[in-house]
Amino acid sequence: MSLPQFLQQLSVWALPIVFAITLHEAAHGYVADKLGDPTARLLGRISLNPIRHIDPLGTVLLPLLLLMTAGFAFGYAKPVPVNFRNLRRPRRDSVLVAAAGPGANVLMALVAALLLHAVPYLPEQAAIWLGANCINAIKINVILGVFNMIPLPPLDGGRVAVGLLPRVLAYPLARVEPYGMLIVFGAVFLLPMIAGQFGLDFNPVFQVLGPVMNGVIELLLWLTRAPLS
């Protein structure tokens, strides 16, 4: 990818990524604060300032590497700290706190789809730029929201599952949390890499989640009647 192409790609991916991960994490802290845990607020993490949420690897390096090598970008931010013992009803409220991040992503994808209605009224270059930003924002927020709802701690879906399942099932699932990200890394990156060495196209996570993500995107575009041309 040439430098002009890279800069053009960066200009339409940077804002969607920053907004998606910043509001995702801020939403966790905001809901936790409303339900009794001020930890995130006291640490300044209920903020729209992306600097407070940036993780050097997940917010900067990973998206840049993906953009240069694969032509798309994805990332993550520093998790917002939550002391679940401070929540008024810890079991119920932990579900609400966990669901707040993916919920914020769905809301941002909906807003981006609605903004597509403004594209036809802009000058050509501005229309192209805004349209690309909106489309990327829809994709990134849906991917981030759906991916985080995988029912495996420490992902948000895992914490939702722990809060909703009967205790006999919730406790064993909760004990997986220290190894959860290693399992996710292996399923998302290691297994496809090994399969590729044998000429196989095998990515179990996105082969399962891909249709879900596409379905959510199609639903949002249908609900907003978003113009795509």
UniProtKB/TrEMBL annotation:
<keyword id="KW-1133">Transmembrane helix</keyword>
<keyword id="KW-0645">Protease</keyword>
<keyword id="KW-0472">Membrane</keyword>
<dbReference type="InterPro" id="IPR052348">
    <property type="entry name" value="Metallopeptidase_M50B"/>
</dbReference>
<keyword id="KW-1003">Cell membrane</keyword>
<feature type="domain" description="Peptidase M50">
    <location>
        <begin position="138"/>
        <end position="187"/>
    </location>
</feature>
<feature type="transmembrane region" description="Helical">
    <location>
        <begin position="128"/>
        <end position="150"/>
    </location>
</feature>
<dbReference type="GO" id="GO:0046872">
    <property type="term" value="F:metal ion binding"/>
</dbReference>
<keyword id="KW-0482">Metalloprotease</keyword>
<dbReference type="InterPro" id="IPR044537">
    <property type="entry name" value="Rip2-like"/>
</dbReference>
<keyword id="KW-0479">Metal-binding</keyword>
<dbReference type="InterPro" id="IPR008915">
    <property type="entry name" value="Peptidase_M50"/>
</dbReference>
<feature type="transmembrane region" description="Helical">
    <location>
        <begin position="95"/>
        <end position="116"/>
    </location>
</feature>
<feature type="transmembrane region" description="Helical">
    <location>
        <begin position="179"/>
        <end position="199"/>
    </location>
</feature>
<keyword id="KW-0378">Hydrolase</keyword>
<keyword id="KW-0862">Zinc</keyword>
<dbReference type="GO" id="GO:0005886">
    <property type="term" value="C:plasma membrane"/>
</dbReference>
<protein>
    <submittedName>
        <fullName>Site-2 protease family protein</fullName>
    </submittedName>
</protein>
<comment type="similarity">
    <text>Belongs to the peptidase M50B family.</text>
</comment>
<dbReference type="Pfam" id="PF02163">
    <property type="entry name" value="Peptidase_M50"/>
</dbReference>
<dbReference type="GO" id="GO:0006508">
    <property type="term" value="P:proteolysis"/>
</dbReference>
<keyword id="KW-0812">Transmembrane</keyword>
<dbReference type="GO" id="GO:0008237">
    <property type="term" value="F:metallopeptidase activity"/>
</dbReference>
<feature type="transmembrane region" description="Helical">
    <location>
        <begin position="53"/>
        <end position="74"/>
    </location>
</feature>
